[in-house]
Design goal:
The chain is α+β, with helices and mostly antiparallel strands. The protein has a single domain, classed as 2-Layer Sandwich (Heat Shock Protein 90). It contains five helices and eight strands. Helix 4 links the parallel strand 3 and strand 4. The longest helix has 27 residues. It is globular, with a radius of gyration of 19 Å. The chain starts with 6 loop residues before the first helix and ends in a 5-residue tail after the last strand. The mean pLDDT is about 80.
């Protein structure tokens, strides 16, 4: 199936997601140059003109590099207007993906839960991981001053979603989904605008800026999924509903 994103949306993915790559790369560099400078480097003289210095890296820096690779892959997949979609059954450990998010965001307030026994659905893990990272990062930024907890959840869902703010027309007659969800216990979205408005470009976070939910909507369009939001003070949840039987 052809990439369902428009040429403008593909360009937005490449342009906006690059901001996250830059921020992670800077964090990784700071980790290497500041935190790890307290560790003893390994220095070897290779020749009269070559001196090799190996600097020990921290666990956080390694996870940062892994996250950079995942976001880069998501940009390549979603941003390529001329390439078809390739979805496959991922044989991966989601715990490793979530531990990377916890490490790079540096938060012990991020918890992961799942009731999935097997990953019997077709998807693109790099895109899903980037959704999780973006939404968790936005929640963390929003809760930084007031405190709070963030949840990363995966679960089976049977039935018809009732909280949809983006309904993918490619999905027909499907009552079984995998929910990829990010929750937090902050004050919720502002009530002066409909929740669906936050999925628009430049109005995609709770303070009216950024692209966390805009990216989520484009990713849902790419993957063939719905997006749902529930938000009241003390409980906000953004959910991606991925059909277990993909129509793509």
């Amino acid at each position: 199936m052809k990439n369902p994103l428009t040429l403008e949306e593909c360009a937005a993915i490449t342009r906006l997601a690059g901001h996250d790559l830059n921020s992670i790369a800077c964090d990784c560099l700071n980790t290497l140059l500041i935190l790890d400078m307290n560790l003893s480097p390994e220095i070897q003289v290779k020749s009269k003109s070559v001196l090799e210095i190996r600097l020990p890296t921290s666990k956080r820096a390694i996870h940062a590099l892994q996250t950079i690779v995942e976001i880069s892959s998501a940009i390549n997949y979603m941003g390529d207007f001329d390439s078809p979609i390739t979805l496959y059954e991922p044989f991966i450990s989601w715990e490793k993906h979530f531990s990377s998010i916890q490490e790079i965001l540096g938060s012990d307030k991020i918890k992961f839960t799942t009731n999935l026994q097997v990953s019997n659905f077709k998807s693109c893990p790099a895109v899903l991981s980037t959704i999780y990272y973006n939404l968790a990062k936005n929640s963390r930024k929003y809760l930084l001053k007031i405190g709070g907890n963030i949840g990363l959840n995966m679960q089976h869902f049977f039935g018809k979603p009732t909280n949809l703010v983006f309904e993918n027309p490619a999905i027909t007659m499907n009552n079984e989904f995998i929910i990829f969800q990010v929750t937090d216990d902050g004050p919720g979205f502002r009530q002066e605008r409909p929740l669906a408005d936050y999925l628009n470009k430049n109005v995609s976070t709770r303070d009216g800026g950024g692209f966390g939910l805009y990216f989520t909507k484009l990713a849902a369009k790419y993957l063939g999924a719905h997006v749902g939001i529930t938000s009241v003070p003390g409980k906000t949840a953004v959910s991606l509903y991925l059909p277990t039987k993909n129509t793509n």
